Amino acid sequence: MNPISKIKSEAAPGLTIAQADALTFLDSLSPASVGGLFADPPYSSGGSQRTITTQTGRKYCGSLSRKTLPDFAGETMDQRSNLRFTVSWLSAARRVLEPGGYFGIFCDWRQLPVFTDAVQIAGLHWKGISVWDKTEGVRPQKGAFRHQCEYIVWGTNGQKKPGANRILPGCFRKSNVTRNKLHQTQKPVEVMDWLLSITEDGAPVLDPFMGSGTTGAAALASGRPFFGCELVPEIYKVAEARLTACIGRSQVQACA
Ligand SMILES: C[S@@+](CC[C@H](N)C(=O)[O-])C[C@H]1O[C@@H](n2cnc3c(N)ncnc32)[C@H](O)[C@@H]1O
User: Fold this and answer.
1) How many angstroms does the Cα of residue 139 sit away from the middle of ligand 1?
2) Could you give the count of Cα atoms lying within 13 Å of 75 in the half-sphere of its Cβ?
3) Is the pTM of this model over 0.85?
4) Is residue 243 within 8 Å of 226, Cβ to Cβ?
5) How far is the CA of 24 from the centre of ligand 1 (A)?
6) What CATH architecture applies to the domain 3-255?
7) What's the pLDDT score for residue 79?
8) Would you give the distance in Å from CA 105 to the centre of its chain?
9) CA of 253 relative to ligand 1 center, distance in Å
10) What's the rounded Cα separation, in Å, for the pair 179 and 85?
């Protein structure tokens, strides 16, 4: 059976999403069919050494979100297996990203070495690290610098396109999502809007780890077609409802 028709869900024009494993989904897409790859994959930070890692709610959430939001997949890898996993999905995604297209992959401080290695092993051009500053709202630790940032390893698939001429700030300050959260580690839609605005107007955007669909919400609000998948059925349903409701809304805030 053709894997595309099996897993592709055409909820609306400009929106191609599936409840699927990232590798299966990526293999179903046409070569060079997107202009931007923006992903917030499972970080697996702390890997298999932390006993709490199978319950992502215990790792990432306060008690309220832990009770109401489903745990997500992919958080039990150690550094080596995460490197292998990241290289394999990035290699598959590189086939789908057009020559000169942009990528931006989120990670935390602990996984930064793994992710910067992975993009290079996968054959992408690593061009920099941008910073999402989550502000002082992030939990403080005595005797430590506050871990208030996440990092975006970014670059292009080969040389950037000759016409690419946007200049964007390298750091974006925006507090974490706290109200009406849809996912345990949901990104603010404004952060995704900042990232994908490096691509050309109208460029199709891909996120193979879409969670609640924040990348898709930012893409649709800015007039960019979106391709995304999510492995956990319960989380996929949340993204599908959110993104279907976003169709035709042109304000990033309206899709938050
Ligand atoms: C860090 S979360 C993304 C959150 C998202 N940025 C948001 O704002 O909601 C990563 C997501 O990738 C999903 N995931 C993990 N492994 C996967 C795989 N192999 N294929 C597809 N999705 C996967 C997890 O279930 C999780 O929902």
Assistant:
1) 23
2) 20
3) yes
4) yes
5) 14
6) 3-Layer(aba) Sandwich (3.40)
7) 86
8) 7
9) 22
10) 32
